[in-house]
């Protein structure tokens, strides 16, 4: 049985496993990550803009003031979307209030639904992995477009992702370490067998102790999504450190897998929301 068939059989569990949410219009993902039809947008003093990269819309929440800003690329969880993620946890608004732009990227749609999308993080997940979508190339195009349009500041670009989005953030940092200065990874491990190079990349890995779907110790329901158990947090951190990354680990005692519980536990146990933590991490 192929990993994709296993994914389909485990779809009900996967919704709970990799869902992360956002709001606004439902963005439609297009499988072809190689076409580049980016459109320009005018600069604004705060607010929201939308650009298109590789046929996928990217919503941008801007910090006040003109000119390029330090920017977070936000990667939603599997079987979710940029809009649903933003509705659940207002990371972009919190970052903008602290002087950062936030760009919500969109994965490849699953089940022909634009509000259910996945990333090709290696052995996981769904349509993106099965079709071998070049999400590393897509994110690279997105960064170049954001820089060329005066939105993102080269040398101050960060990734923040949840679950499948965290897995994708790790893959990108290991593939193009010179593009990003830091990664905030929530509830998702590195799925690659090794990280070739992450020299100088700062990593904050946030995971819930009560996460039974992608457990801190590894295992979980990976067999329904990637054909194998998920790696442990320690396995991920060891690989990243061997590749030259600087790693901070936060285990939240009260958090489960879902991003809302991660946000609530981070506030309760650390006194910061995810957006506030990300901003302080990037200072």
Automatic annotation (TrEMBL):
Entries under Gene3D superfamilies matching the protein: alpha/beta hydrolase
Record-linked SUPFAM superfamilies: alpha/beta-Hydrolases
Signal peptide: 1-29
InterPro entries assigned: AB_hydrolase_fold, Plant_Biomass_Hydrol_Est, PLipase/COase/thioEstase
Key words, A-Z: Hydrolase, Signal
Phospholipase/carboxylesterase/thioesterase domain: residues covered: 136-221
GO molecular function: hydrolase activity
PANTHER family, sorted: FERULOYL ESTERASE (PTHR43037:SF5), UNNAMED PRODUCT-RELATED (PTHR43037)
Protein name: Polyhydroxybutyrate depolymerase
Organism of this sequence: Roseivivax halotolerans
């Amino acid at each position: 049985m192929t990993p994709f068939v296993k994914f389909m059989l485990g779809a009900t569990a996967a919704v709970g496993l990799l869902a992360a949410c956002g709001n606004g219009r439902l963005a439609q993902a297009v499988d072809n990550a190689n076409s580049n039809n980016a459109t320009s947008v005018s600069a604004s003093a705060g607010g929201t803009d939308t650009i298109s990269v590789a046929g996928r819309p990217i919503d941008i929440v801007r910090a006040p003031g003109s000119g390029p800003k330090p920017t977070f690329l936000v990667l939603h969880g599997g079987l979710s979307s940029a809009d649903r993620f933003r509705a659940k946890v207002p990371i972009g608004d919190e970052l903008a209030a602290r002087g950062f732009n936030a760009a919500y990227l969109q994965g490849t749609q699953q089940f022909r639904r634009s509000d259910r999308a996945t990333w090709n993080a290696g052995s996981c997940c769904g349509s993106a992995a099965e079709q071998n979508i070049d999400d590393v190339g897509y994110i690279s195009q997105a960064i170049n477009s954001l820089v060329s349009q005066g939105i993102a500041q080269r040398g101050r670009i960060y990734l923040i992702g949840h679950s499948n989005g965290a897995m994708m953030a790790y893959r990108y940092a290991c593939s193009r370490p010179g593009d990003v200065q830091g990664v905030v990874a929530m509830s998702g491990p590195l799925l690659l067998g090794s990280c070739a190079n992450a020299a100088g990349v700062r990593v904050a890995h946030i995971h819930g102790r009560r996460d039974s779907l992608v457990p801190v110790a590894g295992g979980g329901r990976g067999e329904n999504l990637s054909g194998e158990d998920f790696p442990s947090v320690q396995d991920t951190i060891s690989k990243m450190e061997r590749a030259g990354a600087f790693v901070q680990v936060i285990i939240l005692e009260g958090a489960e897998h879902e991003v809302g519980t991660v946000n609530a536990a981070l506030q309760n146990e650390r006194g910061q929301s995810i957006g506030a933590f990300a901003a302080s991490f990037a200072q």
